[in-house]
Each structure stands twice: as structure tokens, then as C-alpha cells.
Amino acid sequence: MNRRRIVTLIATAVASLLVATSLPAVAPSPVLAQSQVTLLVSAAASLKEALEEIKPIYQQSQPNTNINFNFGASGALQQQIEQGAPADIFISAGKKQVDALEEKGLLLKGTRSVLARNRLVLIVPKDITGITSFYNLKDGKIKKIAIGEPRSVPAGQYAEQVLQKLKILPQVKSKLVYANNVRQVLASVESGNADAGLVYITDAKISDKVKIVVAADEKYHSAIIYPFAVLKSSKNADTAKEFAKFLTSSQAKAVLKKYGFILP
Length: 264
Prior knowledge:
alpha/beta, D-Maltodextrin-Binding Protein, domain 2, 2 domains, five-stranded mixed β-sheet, 11 helices, 21% strand
């Protein structure tokens, strides 16, 4: 072997060694599989406690999925979504709002379902006596009746329907005080700023400052259902579909039932 060939072989070996030592070791990376995904769920205010309890149960098996909630009136949330606000899942307290989004092609096909049902009840502050029915709302001692704003709050729409069916809306209309969501109705009655209010039974059950007078007959209002769906604009559609599926699981249903929701 001549000298030139030996020098060439040595140079090649050294170059190969330098390349090998300069490159990082290639190994399977778990980064993609373990990357954190954040979902934003826009949901009716009446679901607050139940969904916040469901969240950690889901995250026990899906620790890399973080869930944030945007609670509010269903109509207001619908408008936010229509105007392009980010959200992965929408849960409404009424069918009307989800129907509107579906008609505009904003829902991911095949993901719409029903989470639960609810009842509408008349509540008063705990220390109030002498109120036994909706007809007592006409009494002079009842000055303010809190309900949700019917144009954006499903509970307000249901409340107005009940008052109309009972033929007492004309007599009590001047007493109505409108709130931006059903939890504001509850707060008004709790604080005494309203003498009575119409909320969901699930709202009334979380408060020790109000009492239920009577539940509205379901034939007097539209069905109170909570439809939900993954939004077409979701950037994490697969993860959103997984969480949506969990919302119909036995674990999630147990929490909803605990808070007084009626399972579909």
C-alpha cells in the first residue's frame, strides 16, 4: 500500500469520525405524543359546577389535555362563535342556539349529541313566606321578578313561555328584571335584590340562600335540553371529539346526576 493511499484512508476515517461525533444521537422522541393540548369549551352558565368537577376526572386518564371553560349565556356564546371567537366545543342550554350554528355549517358533522335535560323552577329568598305558586307573582308584595334576558338566555325564554301559558305575563311584566345569564338571576334572589326568580332546578340546588316554590309544568315551555357539538373551527378536533365522547360516559353522567341534571 503506497503512502498516498494510506493518507487518504486516514483522512476518510477522521472525517467520518468527526461527522459521527457532531451529529446528535437519533432516538424516538416522545415530545409529539406527550405534547400538551388545550381545549376551550364554551358552555351554558348552569353547567359550571358539574363541568368543573368532570374536568379532573377526565384529566386523570388524559393528563396531556388541558380544558378551559368559557361560561355564559347560551345566546351570547353562540354569537361569539358566529363572530369567529375560538372554541372547540359548544354546550348550550337550549336547542335553538345549536340549531343556528348547525344551519351556518359551524359544527363538525357527526359530533352533535344531547348532554342532559333540566327543569325550570320558581325560587324566592329562603326567609320569604306566603309564596306557593306562580300566581302569587301577581301579589303586591312581589316587586321584582328576576329572569334571564329572553333574547340570549334560554332560561329566560322558558320563563317567559311559562308566564304566557299561565296568562299572568301582562300582570307581572312591569316587575321583570332581566339578567345576562341564569346565575345572575340566582344571585339577584340570593341577595334580596329580587323577590322571586325563575332558574333551573340545578341552580337552585347549589344555593342555601333560596328555596324552591314550585317547578314549572313541562308542558308550559319548550323542552329544556343541553345539546353540544364539536366546532368545525376547532384546531384540536380529534382531542375535542374524545372529550365530547367522555361527556356521555358513565363517569360524567354520575356527576351530572349528582347536580340534579336529568340524563337523556
